[in-house]
Design goal:
The chain is an alpha/beta fold and about 475 residues long. It folds into two domains: about 280 residues, Aldehyde Dehydrogenase, Chain A, domain 1, CATH 3.40.605; about 180 residues, 3-Layer(aba) Sandwich (Aldehyde Dehydrogenase, Chain A, domain 2), CATH 3.40.309. Helices cover about 40% and strands about 20% of the residues. About 55% of the residues are buried. The chain binds adenosine-5'-diphosphate (ADP). Keywords: Oxidoreductase.
Length: about 475
C-alpha cells in the first residue's frame, strides 16, 4: 500500500538527538534534503556545529558508565524490539530511503530487511559474547578474559545505504555497551533520524544514541576526536576521508573501524556456468545503481567466453528500467547528485577516448534528476581511469584474460581489497582463487554477499576491522585480562 509521503515526511524528526531530546542546532541553522530523482524539497533538518557535537558527546560520555552496567539481556531486548519496530515500519523506512537516496522501492525494501537483520543478529550476539579462561602453561596463574565496552563512539555513515550503514554500527555498539554520537551523511539524514526515533521507541535510554546532522562534517568530527572522552571512531566512506580520520585518531590513540573504498574484480573463468555468471554479475554491478563499495568494478572475463558473456550481460542491462524509484516498475534509480553523475560520465568518456567500445548505454538519461543508463564497455584498455578508480555507477567495464595467473594479477592490481567475485565450476580452482585474491571478501558463484552474520571488511586501502558476524561486536569491545594465582 502506497504511503502518503507528506504525512511520512512530517513524522520524521528533523532536530539533533541529544540526551534523548530532539533539539535545534545551537545556531538554529538548518539545511535542505532533496530528492535526487526530481530535485524536489523533502525536509529541512538541523545543521549542527562543533558546539552541538560537544553537547552530544557530553550526553554520550555522561550516559556511558550506567549504560555499561546494564545487563546484556537488557541490551539484547532493546535491539530485538528495534528489529520488530523496523519491520513494522518497513514501508516507511523504504519510502524514506527511496525519496532521499533514489534507489528503487524494491531495493529499499531489500535494504530494510538487510539493515534490520543487524539489530536481530547483535541482539543475539549481545548475550553470547564469551570470554575465556585457561591456566598459564607453567601452572602459576589462572588467566580469565572479560569484555568491556570501548567507551563513547563516533559513528560516521555514508549516503548509499542510509539504514543498513547505521544499523551495522549502532547495533554492535549497543550490544557491547557503548554510547555513541551518530553523524549521518548530509545527503540522506532522514532515514537515520527516523531510525534514531525507532531506537528510542524500542526503549534505548537517553544519551546512549545521539545524532548530529551537519554540513560541517570535518569540524564536527575533529571536535569529537580531539576530546579524550571519545574512545572510538567507526567510519564508512571514501578512502581519502578515512585516511584523514586515521591521522586524527592517532592523537588520542582511538580505536578505529574503517570501511573504505573498493575496486571489486569479478572474474569469469572459461568453465563458469554462464547462466549464473551473467545473472550474478548483473546483481553485483547493478545493486544500488552501482553505488556500493562492493559493486563489481571490473569484469575480468576469459577470452573464450567474453563474446557470449558480454552479449548476455548487455541484453540483461538493456532490460532494466531507469526511472524515479518511487515508481514500482523502476529497476534503476538516479545517482545521488550531479557530481556523481559527472564523475561516471567522465570515466566513460575517458575509457571511450582510449579505445573502449560502448555495447550499451554510455549516456545520461532524461533532463531532470541524475540518471545514467546501464552501460557495458568492452575492450577497455588497462590505462583507462575506470580500471583503477571506483565507478559508483551503473557501468560495467569488461577486461579479458587468457591465463589464470593473468586474471589474479589484473584483479589484485589495485590499492583496494574489499570485495571480489569468482565464477567457476572447478572446485580446485575455487580454492586456488581464494588463496590468490587479496581481498577481504570473495564471492564464489554469487554476486551479492552482504549479510549481518558475515564479517564485512577489507584489506589494503579498503580499511580496517570487520562489521557484522561474530567479529562485529569485537570492534566495540576491549578485552580485559584478569590474572589470579593458582
Ligand atoms: P562519499 O564520497 O561516498 O560521499 P565521503 O567519505 O565523502 O564519501 O563521506 C562519507 C561520510 O563521511 C559522510 O557522512 C560525510 O559527511 C563524512 N565526511 C566527509 N568528510 C569528512 C571529514 N573530513 N571528517 C569527517 N567526516 C567526513
Amino acid at each position: 500500500m502506497a504511503l502518503n509521503t507528506s504525512d511520512l515526511l512530517a513524522s520524521v524528526p528533523t532536530g539533533l538527538l541529544i540526551n534523548g531530546h530532539w533539539v535545534d542546532a545551537a545556531t538554529s541553522a538548518t539545511f535542505t534534503v532533496e530528492n535526487p530523482a526530481t530535485g524536489e524539497f523533502l525536509a529541512e533538518v538541523a545543521a549542527g556545529s562543533a558546539e552541538d557535537a560537544a553537547r552530544a558527546l557530553d550526553a554520550a560520555a555522561n550516559a556511558q558508565k550506567e549504560w555499561a552496567r546494564t545487563s546484556t539481556r537488557e541490551r539484547s531486548d532493546i535491539l530485538r524490539r528495534a528489529f520488530d519496530l523496523v519491520h513494522e515500519r518497513a514501508e516507511e523506512f523504504a519510502t524514506l530511503m527511496t525519496l532521499e537516496m533514489g534507489k528503487s522501492l524494491a531495493e529499499a525494501r531489500g535494504e530494510v530487511a538487510y539493515g534490520a537483520e543487524f539489530l536481530r543478529w547483535f541482539s543475539e550476539e549481545a548475550v553470547r559474547h564469551y570470554g575465556h579462561s585457561l591456566t598459564s602453561p607453567e601452572g602459576k596463574l589462572n588467566i580469565r578474559t572479560q569484555h568491556k565496552p570501548v567507551g563513547p563512539c563516533l559513528l560516521i555513515t555514508p549516503w548509499n545505504f542510509p539504514l543498513a550503514m547505521a544499523t551495522r554500527k549502532v547495533a554492535p555498539a549497543v550490544a557491547a555497551g557503548c554510547t555513541m554520537v551518530l553523524k549521518p551523511a548530509e545527503l540522506t539524514p532522514l532515514t537515520s533520524l527516523y531510525f534514531a526515533q525507532t531506537m528510542l521507541d524500542a526503549g534505548l535510554p537517553a544519551g546512549v544514541l545521539n545524532v548530529v546532522t551537519t554540513l560541517e562534517a570535518p569540524e564536527v568530527s575533529q571536535t569529537l576526536m580531539s576530546d579524550d572522552r571519545l574512545r572510538k571512531v567507526s567510519f564508512t566512506g571514501s578512502t581519502g576521508v578515512g585516511k584523514i580520520l586515521l591521522r586524527q585518531a592517532s592523537d588520542n590513540v582511538l580505536r578505529t573501524s574503517m570501511e573504505l573504498g573498493g575496486n571489486a574484480p569479478l572474474i569469469v573463468f572459461e568453465d563458469a556456468d554462464l547462466d549464473i555468471a551473467v545473472e550474478q554479475a548483473k546483481q553485483a554491478k547493478m545493486r544500488n545503481m552501482g553505488e556500493a563499495c562492493t559493486a563489481a568494478n571490473r569484469m575480468i572475463v576469459h577470452e573464450a567466453v567474453f563474446e557470449e558473456f558480454s552479449r548476455r550481460l548487455t541484453a540483461e542491462l538493456e532490460g532494466l528500467k531507469v526511472g524515479n524509484g518511487m515508481d514500482e516498475s523502476t529497476d534503476v534509480g538516479p545517482l545521488i547528485e550531479q557530481k556523481a553523475l559527472d564523475n561516471v560520465a567522465s570515466l566513460v568518456e575517458d575509457a571511450v577516448s582510449k579505445g573502449a567500445k560502448v555495447l550499451t548505454g554510455g549516456k545520461k538519461v532524461g533532463d531532470a534528476g541524475y540518471f545514467y543508463a546501464p552501460t557495458v564497455l568492452a575492450e577497455v584498455p588497462a590505462d583507462a581511469r575506470i580500471a583503477t578508480e571506483e565507478i559508483f555507477g551503473p557501468v560495467a567495464p569488461i577486461f579479458t584474460f587468457s591465463t589464470e595467473e593473468e586474471a589474479y594479477e589484473i584483479a589484485n592490481g589495485t590499492e583496494y581489497g574489499l570485495a571480489s567475485y569468482v565464477f567457476t565450476e572447478d572446485a580446485v580452482r575455487m580454492q586456488r582463487a581464494t588463496e590468490n585474491l587479496e581481498f577481504g571478501m570473495v564471492g564464489v558463484n554469487v554476486g551479492v554477499m552482504s549479510n549481518a552474520a558475515a564479517p564485512f571488511g577489507g584489506v589494503k586501502q579498503s580499511g580496517l576491522g570487520r562489521e557484522g558476524g561474530a567479529e562485529g561486536i569485537e570492534e566495540y569491545s576491549s578485552v580485559q585480562y584478569v590474572a589470579t594465582p593458582r
